[in-house]
Specification:
The chain is of the alpha+beta class. The chain has one domain: Alpha-Beta Plaits, CATH 3.30.70.100. The protein is about 35% helix and about 30% strand. It has a four-stranded antiparallel sheet with strand order 2-3-1-4. α1 packs antiparallel against α3. This is Antibiotic biosynthesis monooxygenase.
Length: about 100
Amino acid sequence: MGFVQVIEYETSHAPEVESLLDEWCARTAGERTATHTVLARDHQRPEHYVSIVEFPSYEEAMRNNTLPATSEFAHRMEELCDSPPRFVDLDVVRDVEL
């Protein structure tokens, strides 16, 4: 049914993170397996962010993680975070448009 990866992180470098995301999207065009992403900022804690990334399957997410641009992105992302990012891997069990 699908797979979602949730990445929570704290950063005081939000513009640099967004630029890094744009760069990753450009570099992985035509080869990435991620199909949709949402980036959200905590209303109460403005330096806390949550990124939700959708994939067709767990296997496709793991394939996406092996792309050289993804590895470089992850390394550079860690440098921009104020603490280590937290990753949560989720199998989609229900998907309903509201």
